[in-house]
Amino acid sequence: KRVTVLAGDGIGKEVTDAAVVVLEAVAKKYGHTFHFDHQLVGGAAVDAKNNPLPEETVASCEASDAILLGAVGGPKWDNNPPALRAEQGLLRLRKQFDLFANLRPVKAVSTLIQSSPLKEDIAKDVDMMIVRELTGGVYFGTPSLYNDEEAVDTMPYSRKEIERIVDKAFEIAMKRNKRITSVDKANVLATSRLWRQIVDEKKAQYPEVEVRHQLVDSVAMSIITSPKDFDVILTENMFGDILSDEASVITGSLGLLPSASIRSDGFGMYEPVHGTAPEIAGQNIANPAAAILSAAMMLTYSFDMLEEAKAIEDAVYGTFEDGHFTGDLTKDNPLGTKEWTEKVLQRLQ
Amino acid sequence: KRVTVLAGDGIGKEVTDAAVVVLEAVAKKYGHTFHFDHQLVGGAAVDAKNNPLPEETVASCEASDAILLGAVGGPKWDNNPPALRAEQGLLRLRKQFDLFANLRPVKAVSTLIQSSPLKEDIAKDVDMMIVRELTGGVYFGTPSLYNDEEAVDTMPYSRKEIERIVDKAFEIAMKRNKRITSVDKANVLATSRLWRQIVDEKKAQYPEVEVRHQLVDSVAMSIITSPKDFDVILTENMFGDILSDEASVITGSLGLLPSASIRSDGFGMYEPVHGTAPEIAGQNIANPAAAILSAAMMLTYSFDMLEEAKAIEDAVYGTFEDGHFTGDLTKDNPLGTKEWTEKVLQRLQ
Ligand SMILES: CC(C)[C@H](C(=O)O)[C@@H](O)C(=O)O
Ligand SMILES: CC(C)[C@H](C(=O)O)[C@@H](O)C(=O)O
Hints:
Pfam families (chains A, B): Iso_dh
Subcellular location (chains A, B): Cytoplasm
Organism (chains A, B): Savagea faecisuis
Number of helices of chain A: 12
Order of helices and strands of chain A: EHEHHEHEHEEEHEHEHEHEEHHH
CATH class of the largest domain in chain A: Alpha Beta
Cofactor (chains A, B): Mg(2+); Mn(2+)
Largest sheet of chain A: 10 strands, mixed
Shape of chain A: globular
Largest interface: A-B, 57 and 57 residues
Number of domains of chain A: 2
Radius of gyration of chain A: 20 Å
Enzyme class (chains A, B): oxidoreductase
CATH architecture of the largest domain in chain A: 3-Layer(aba) Sandwich
Oligomer: homodimer
Bound molecules: 3-isopropylmalic acid
CATH superfamily of the largest domain in chain A: Isopropylmalate Dehydrogenase
Distance between the termini of chain A: 21 Å
């Protein structure tokens, strides 16, 4: 299997390095071969090639079976013109490779729950999967114009765009607890009314799945007051951006959350939910768990290597259970990025 | 002073009744006269007049100095065509009376903090004011179209629309702790770039105010992880809808949160943040605190009766300190809506 590795900016390099050594250990143990091709994206690519998504990077991704991404962005590029901003690399990757389904699992880990801002009885046992539409809506709609006097963004959705993400959510719900909360703002938005209609149509094909429509403002409350009530959360792009970051706080550490951005043929891009954290970059203190768990999602969703994925997850959670933590999770003798990864590797032997 | 009372639907009648008797008590004590004119809005108006905002209601509001609103909406009207939905009454009131500034204070009350889903040390001492633009953006942009195959919403903002809400936020910040967090999604949206530019321009006029730009997804995290860090949160319409509902959970009771929707000349509409709660309507169990505190905001923002407003707030918080609660806050001998209001009235004598 060929994997393009896009470390990106900030701590992206350290955490993808960790994920790569873990994948190599898995390859060795289970007799697979992974080829890794490292390429530039984001701010690093702007600096080197004046383009947040250079052609060589696109070519490498096209020749690969999956992409492993670190993180992109940073204050250095924030005042660039839009086309030369680091995040453009990410947005263009999503669009160009048609990665319409963004999966963000949020799962409480009992050993870490004390770091949650929520009370323990509310945060414990949370296990939800956010399914976010990633290539449509206001992120990509035209016109998107701005001058000194006025600005406009456009939020379009076609039936086809909605149907494929709704299908994906039902597929995923069938493998989980068969409950979907579909998020919209149907009392205000036209796109939400089409969204709700299509969800209702698909529901007829999956009679076992319980579907609830809930307004986005109400979901923003319930995610905090009763996060255990959610199984699959299905949402359009902008709402998904906000709600998935909101939900990420439940577990007590952003350094723990992986994500997958996939299309229908198995190709996908895998990346931690956290950002580039430039203030700690290069210091060997970043938590690589989210990147390593993203690699496990790659094995699950792109390579259908379920046993191998489970081995990685068990090694990560087991390392926490053994009492090994990076500095974001403990003040008490934290391990460095490499040292913590070493513990995971030991568990994988 | 003339006040149009729009009870609306569900528990709207009970809670506005409570607010009206409290206002009458204040009028008596301080020697004011308030005239109350009761009119229909929302689902009740759809049922009676086939129009969520009847002409008589508009005429009454035009002849008044302020509007006191209960709540609108309910499942009964959710499948109506858009123009006949209960919420249309509210959206049209906002637009027609140009109520562009929605103020939602979120203040932790020490006697109630144990009901918060957040840990006590995170929730206590929270005191923020959300300033939400209320008459622009994707709520009112055209085209807003939907057919079986595609849908589109439009998010426009003009310089004028942004300037007036930004001005309002700076004015409010000057009376508080002089810190503004301006919310946007400037890495994706054109409207956010204009928003950010105008905030920076205004900042030059208020050198004392500390301004931070923060992306909406990041704010959705910080509101839960470090709510005490916020003083004034300044946001456009859609983001404000989501973030203000999210923030409302911090205090432990939605039944406590008031809001004001104002324009520049002092005219305003005052309403609790909570909804119509049809399942408990008419049972004398709803918590009227949010409606009563909304009446206090009316005294502050529309009538400039600051002492009277403070008297209401003290009476409400004092009633909690005395250990009197409605059923949403205690299971232990809760008071009914009227009985709890009676305790507030006793404190106002
Ligand atoms: C970097 C940014 C464009 C991106 C988004 O808004 O989608 C990020 O917040 C995310 O959620 O992956
Ligand atoms: C009822 C609805 C249209 C309204 C809104 O979205 O503005 C409500 O959620 C609010 O926040 O006042």
